[in-house]
Design brief:
seven-stranded mixed beta sheet, 33% strand, alpha+beta, Aminopeptidase, binds coenzyme A, 4 helices, globular
Length: 168
């Protein structure tokens, strides 16, 4: 997508990040969250990551300053033994799908993770999601598991595919 800038998220991006993410909570099974994030929650989420090289948050900004997507790396699990693994995710607003924003965000995310002394990254994809599957495979993730009907949202059970990427 021409003119897109990917940069680290700032605290004042909280509202714009929610504007991208909350519709996926409200309308889709792509995320299993069911309650939309408030601006305060999103600010706290950004603050908790600030300065930790393992958990970057990046936004894709149009020339007019509006945000069309974001990517993040998140703790795999709070238990200390999992600290060398992260879960990565990327969300782009539907009007921008298929235009390279997801690729630009993941490029920048894995550049940011380079040197963070991580060993594995995981992408958890509610199936089917061909765009997300294509993106993860393009970035070197391998399909390592399918959890059958592990999730339930809007009254139906949903499979989740685990993608794994070796970082070091
Ligand atoms: C998944 C998502 C981030 C991809 O971002 P995007 O900007 O649309 O994707 P890009 O234009 O960068 O394309 C990335 C790859 O996906 C492929 N792709 C994009 N849309 C596709 C579609 N609808 N079906 C199949 N493949 C698709 C592209 O061809 C490209 O693959 P290639 O490099 O092998 O050609 C975006 O579609 C999105 O936000 N979807 C909703 C949220 C979501 O599913 N997030 C992931 C949660 S696990």
């Amino acid at each position: 997508m021409s003119g897109l800038t990917v940069r680290p998220a700032r605290l004042d991006d909280a509202d714009a990040i929610n504007a991208v993410y909350n519709p996926f909570i409200r309308d889709t099974v792509i995320t299993f969250e069911t309650v939309e994030h408030t601006v305060d929650q999103r600010r706290a989420w950004l603050q908790a990551r600030d300065g930790d090289a393992r958990y970057p948050v990046l936004v894709a900004e149009r020339p007019d300053g509006t945000i069309c997507g974001f990517a993040s790396a998140n703790p795999f699990d709070p238990r200390a033994g999992y600290a060398s693994s992260v879960k990565t995710s990327v969300f782009v607003e539907p009007a921008c799908h298929g235009l390279g924003a997801g690729t630009a965000l993941y490029n920048a995310l894995f550049e940011a993770l380079d040197g963070a002394e991580l060993h594995r990254a995981y992408g958890l994809v509610a199936a089917p999601n061909p765009a997300s599957a294509a993106l993860h495979k393009r970035f070197g993730f391998a399909h390592v598991a399918t959890l059958s009907e592990v999730g339930r949202k809007f009254g139906r059970f949903i499979d989740v595919i685990w993608f794994e990427k070796r970082l070091s």
